[in-house]
UniProtKB/TrEMBL annotation, chain A:
Keywords: FAD, Flavoprotein. The keyword Magnesium does not apply. The keyword Ion transport does not apply. This is Molybdopterin dehydrogenase FAD-binding protein. InterPro entries: CO_DH_flav_C (IPR005107), CO_DH_flav_C_dom_sf (IPR036683), Diverse_Substr_Oxidored (IPR051312), FAD-bd_PCMH (IPR016166), FAD-bd_PCMH-like_sf (IPR036318), FAD-bd_PCMH_sub1 (IPR016167), FAD-bd_PCMH_sub2 (IPR016169), Mopterin_DH_FAD-bd (IPR002346). Residues 1-219 form the FAD-binding PCMH-type domain. It comes from the Bacteria. PROSITE patterns: FAD_PCMH. One of its GO terms (molecular function) is FAD binding.
From TrEMBL, chain B:
GO terms for molecular function: iron ion binding; oxidoreductase activity. It comes from the Bacteria. Residues 34-145 form the Aldehyde oxidase/xanthine dehydrogenase a/b hammerhead domain. This is Aldehyde oxidase and xanthine dehydrogenase molybdopterin binding protein.
Length: 327, 765
């Protein structure tokens, strides 16, 4: 680890100013940054510690929705009674992410900034080519070990999977990311790799995530996060789905449906085709199964990750069916 | 002339926790839980410097040049070691003690045979400085094509290992004429020991004397290696290793990183600490070799085996030799009139593979215990019944009687407890919603490996007892069972016994591997304690100052820290009082289990090599531990995810010195077996010959959430052909057979036979 300087910011503005300087990075829970520094990917000149800033860890939930401060801990949000009752998919996504120790340290803002687990991205010494790390250097993953790589949203420059869980639920329920005064939909906050996989978030120098806002809805209230993986705990998703549903008064016809996928795409992946195919339809197993196949429309696999194309629609279908059963 | 009453009962014979056979909790537990236990690299030494390894980024070729310019001038850097600058060592003998070739040994490589090979090292004032400078070392290579693994087209058929060939009858002929025939191939991937404590050490030279603090499964073997590398007498090297954070076979040998640290310390004249990073542990030493087996069975229509033909292959490195004995279970589990097993090893560009919990038996059992399950379905009989129909009443290979084989009892006890009789035979016949339920059974075995050990027992003036041995405790419970052994033999409480382990200055012990330590060291401590007791009673009877002198007794009773005449008609004093009265501040005795006429050379060879290990088929008997696993899995029919929901295992490890600790080791083995079956696999990038999942987020071992309640049942009886006190091996047994039991359960659940481990979800959807 090379030398870096450490600044403890005493205000939000001071933090933003310090973080705008070249080579500066924000430090909150540290669970991603320190990991990336250890494997030689993050090489900050300056760490700007914001962990102690006051007022950024609030969790407020009312009829209109939830606002969650950037410094709220994953475990606090996951365990918040109103989040559990009004946004079960958000709570479940957090519970199934990482490990207890990491959830106790990691913040919501840092969670959104989590980077890919692509092994080629994480090993600069052995794999110098990585367009995400070094624009134009190439992609070591293509042609390599791709079992954990994305099948949706990929480009010739990058097939790295977005590994997180929380953002999948946020994308499903049209959450808004607060960058101070600027507010942008979370779906726009995460960028497709395209030809610039080094640019992962729509965040400008001098900006900092201050919080997120999740609009309340009937579909958010009846929602779930289903995460499938080989290991029961502490593993990234093979495929996951955040699903919310609202029925017409008959209790069978789908008025509103939200579907987003994790573990299969280069960013948290909203599956609007599935939603549109099922809105207005009566929830029937065959209908759901057929519509769920639309979740992976346009997918391109690299052999070892083909199973994700099979798996993701099944995860979506199961999640929808599960919510239907609780009607 | 003395009184000592070791009960040779069954596993539950401990009348109280502190006796041998009692359920005493680990006496090293509190120190570990509170952090008071100081591990090897936690020693605080004056002037400590920090070394960090630089690894090759190619798998095959030559180092053309190493540019150390930038690293040498980096802040805090003390030295940069390369093959050109590191001091020259002598080649050490291997673990058999085979005389080494007379050529120098360099722990930093010029010829690259695997990715991750150590090519340079940087030593600095702090660990962080060394890491930063190591990244500045620029190595250029001439790269040549690598053989990445067993499936590489360049790998070839490999080298036939004739010593592994086992044949009797006419296996091919009997197979050809058998009415029922099955043939299938079974593969296991590279697997890693992944101990919680990574490998590392602190080396310090004082003149020509070397002290090494290093986690070690074999102090005397490693001390010998260091001594031979540096050309100093064995006695000049001291290995210290009081606590080990898991070894599983990987910490038995002195390895190149140890040589680098010891060289750096010598060259620098300062103590040097070197700890591998977690990624480095995947290439710094060998995990379990990848294996391939074909098992061919011919049987009659009742499922009686007529012939087994077995062929095995394991990978080894380009310039090292590792044989994973794949026919070890195949050749003894079932009786068959015709048998043939042969094995090749294939060189690939990897670090030389190493020992990992039950090397040989583990993959061997995956082959034969899967194949016998396939045969059961082919014949149409219950998988448990087919095992009983082919039960080996004696060792089919050695043609000797088993010392003890409680496998039939294990099948019966496990099946009863599991409820096996309620199993419906058809695959996919049991379900719970989306979950397909499967029940599988498999057997396991591990040979009783025996060697010799010595121990010192000291009775102090206050009546308390010390035990000293250079054997080690890596979590199995050595501290505890040796305290129990000394306590029972000497009639004191285990609390009054202090066990000192993990220092090569203590009386010697062989390798802690092959599940041999408990049998060897309880025997040695028992003998040493008996000898100390003889001295104590002898003094009490013969010393004129003793209160017993006038008694004219020929024996005395020692119990509860007191010494008295057998009939209770004489003095009754504490051991402390007796020692005081005869003017002694302590009594001590060394005991060992070596043959009586052993020479000093024999002893040295015994403790520093494995050449003196006693074959498990020595004499009239064949000695093994046995087990039977009954496992329930739930497979999600949409997702292919497999979860183990129930385990009942019945095990025969002979007499248990401490059932609580033995059960814990068995459960640990079963958990490791669940990981092997479902999760663990070193994944190679075929373009680079490099393991890419070299960390604990990507190399998956089970978490608590993956493990159901595990029930273990001891069905062992004392086996005095196997050890002094009647125990057989514990540590490695329980992993053997877990993976096939799970694969068999997955077949029962889904109708899909998975013959390549691990059983990940994409193989089932």
């Amino acid at each position: 680890m090379r030398d870096f300087s450490y600044v403890r910011a005493n205000s939000l503005d001071a933090a933003r100013q310090a973080a705008a300087l070249p080579g500066a990075m924000l430090l909150a829970g540290g669970t991603t940054l320190i990991d990336l520094a250890k494997c030689g990917v993050a090489e900050p000149e300056t760490l700007v510690d914001i962990a102690h800033l006051k007022g950024l860890d609030r969790i407020e939930v009312n009829e209109r929705g939830a606002t969650i401060g950037a410094l709220a801990r994953m475990s606090h949000v996951a365990d918040h009674a109103d989040i559990k009752s009004r946004f079960p998919a958000v709570s479940e996504a957090l519970w199934q992410a990482a490990s207890a120790q990491i959830r106790n340290m990691a913040t919501i803002g840092g969670n959104l900034m989590q980077r890919t687990r692509c092994p080629y991205f994480r090993d600069p010494a052995n794999f110098p080519a990585c367009n995400k790390r070094q624009p134009g250097s190439g992609c070591s993953a293509i042609g390599g070990v791709t079992r954990g790589h994305a099948v949706l949203g990929i480009s010739d420059a990058c097939i790295a999977m977005y590994p997180g869980d929380l953002a999948v639920a946020l994308v499903a329920f049209d959450a808004i990311v607060h960058l101070g005064e600027r507010h942008i939909p979370v779906d726009d906050f995460f960028l497709l790799p395209g030809t610039t996989p080094d640019r992962e978030h729509a965040i400008e120098p001098g900006e900092m995530i201050t919080g997120i806002e999740i609009p309340g809805s009937a579909s958010a209230r009846r929602s779930t996060y289903l995460k499938i993986r080989d290991r029961q705990s502490y593993e990234f998703a093979a495929a996951s789905a955040a699903v919310g549903i609202e029925f017409e008064p008959d209790g069978r016809t789908i008025r509103d449906l939200r579907v987003a996928l994790g573990g299969v795409a280069t960013k948290p992946w909203r599956a609007r085709a599935v939603e549109n195919a099922l809105k207005g339809k009566v929830l029937e197993p065959d209908t759901v199964r057929a519509a769920s196949l639309l979740a992976v429309e346009g997918s391109v696999d690299h052999g070892a990750n083909h199973y994700k194309v099979e798996l993701a629609p099944r995860v979506v279908a199961r999640a929808i069916r599960k919510l239907g059963e609780t009607a | 002339m003395t009184v000592h009453n070791i009960r040779h009962g069954d596993a539950s014979d401990g009348a109280f926790a502190e006796a041998v056979g009692g359920r005493l909790s680990r006496i090293d537990g509190p120190a570990k839980i509170t952090g008071a236990a100081k591990y090897a690299v936690e020693q605080q030494l004056e002037g400590l410097a920090y070394a960090v390894l630089v690894e090759s980024t190619i798998a095959s070729g030559k180092v053309r040049a190493i540019d150390t310019t930038a690293a040498e001038v980096a802040p805090g850097v003390l030295q940069v070691l390369t093959p050109d600058t590191i001091i020259s060592l002598k080649t050490a003998a291997d673990w058999f003690g085979t005389p080494p070739p007379d050529k120098p040994y360099c722990p930093l490589a010029r010829d690259i045979t695997f990715s991750g090979q150590h090519v340079a090292a940087v030593v600095a004032e702090t660990f962080e400085r060394a890491v930063a400078a190591a990244a500045l070392v620029k190595v250029s290579y001439e790269e040549t094509p690598a053989i990445v693994d067993l499936s590489d087209g360049k790998a070839g058929d490999g080298i036939a290992i004739d010593a592994m060939t086992k044949e009797w009858g006419d296996a091919q002929g009997a197979f050809a004429s058998a009415p029922v025939r099955i043939c299938a191939a079974y593969n296991t991937p590279r697997e890693y020991q992944a101990p919680m404590e990574p490998h590392g050490l602190i080396a310090r030279w004082e003149g020509d004397r070397l002290t090494v603090w290093e986690p070690s499964q074999w102090l005397d073997g490693m001390a010998r290696t260091y001594a031979e590398w540096f050309g100093v007498p064995f006695e000049n090297v001291r290995l210290v290793s009081p606590y080990i954070g898991g070894g599983f076979g990987s910490k038995a040998l002195a390895l190149s990183h140890g040589a680098v640290a010891a060289c750096a310390a010598k060259m620098l004249g300062r103590p040097v600490r070197l700890v591998m990073t977690r990624p480095q542990t995947f290439t710094g030493y060998g995990g379990r070799a990848a294996t391939r087996q074909t098992v061919t069975i011919g049987a009659d229509v009742q499922g009686k085996i007529q012939s087994i033909v077995h062929r095995g292959v394991n990978e080894t490195s380009i310039d090292g030799m590792w044989v994973e004995p794949l026919g070890s279970v195949t050749s003894i589990m079932y009786t068959t009139p015709n048998f043939s097993s042969k094995q090749n090893v294939v060189r690939v560009n990897s670090v030389v593979p190493g020992a990992m919990r039950a090397p040989g038996e583990n993959p061997s059992a995956f082959g034969i215990e899967s194949a016998i399950d396939e045969l059961a379905y082919e014949v149409g009989i219950d998988p448990l019944e087919i095992r009983l129909r082919n039960y080996a009443e004696q060792d089919p290979h050695a043609k000797k009687a088993w010392s003890t084989r409680q496998l039939r009892e294990a099948f019966a006890a496990g099946a009863e407890r599991f409820g096996w009789s309620r199993r419906t035979p058809e695959p996919r016949s049991m379900r719970d919603g989306n979950q397909l339920i499967g029940w599988g059974v498999a057997a396991g075995t591990y040979p009783v490996r025996r060697a010799y050990g010595e121990a010192l027992v000291r009775i102090l003036a206050d009546g308390s007892v010390e035990v000293e041995s250079s054997s080690i405790d890596m979590g199995q419970g050595t501290y505890t069972i040796l305290a129990q052994t000394a306590a029972e033999t000497l009639g004191v409480r285990a609390d009054d016994v202090v066990v000192k382990l993990g220092d090569s200055r203590f009386p010697r012990a062989g390798v802690t591997g092959g599940s041999r330590l408990a049998g060897v060291m309880t025997g040695a401590v028992y003998k040493a304690a008996t000898s100390a007791l003889d001295q104590l009673v002898g003094l009490a009877i013969s010393d004129p100052r003793s209160p017993f002198h006038a008694l004219q007794a020929n024996t005395l009773v020692v119990a509860n820290g007191r010494i008295a005449s057998p009939r209770g008609d004489g003095p009754d004093v504490s051991v402390a009082e007796l020692l005081k009265s005869v003017g002694r501040d302590h009594i001590e005795a060394t005991g060992d289990t070596m043959p009586a006429n052993s020479t000093p050379e024999d002893r040295y060879k015994n403790y520093t090599t494995i050449a003196m290990s006693v074959p498990h088929t020595e004499g009239d008997y064949s000695r093994h531990s046995w087990c039977a696993h009954f496992i329930e899995v739930r497979v999600d029919e949409d997702f292919g995810t497999v979860r183990v929901s129930r385990v009942v295992s019945a095990l025969d490890s002979g007499r248990l010195y401490n059932p609580k600790l033995a059960e814990s080791q068995w459960k640990g083995g079963i958990i490791m077996g669940i990981g092997q079956a479902l999760l663990e696999e070193g994944i190679v990038d075929r373009r680079h010959g490099r393991i890419v999942n070299n960390n604990l987020a990507d190399y998956l071992v089970p978490t608590n959430a993956d493990i159901p309640d595990i029930e273990v049942i001891s069905v062992g009886i004392p086996d005095l052909h196997s050890s002094v006190l009647g125990g057989k091996g514990v540590g490695e047994l329980a992993i053997v057979g877990v993976a096939p039991a799970i694969a068999n359960a997955v077949f029962h659940a889904t109708g899909k036979r998975i013959r390549d481990l691990p059983i990940t979800l994409e193989k089932l959807i």
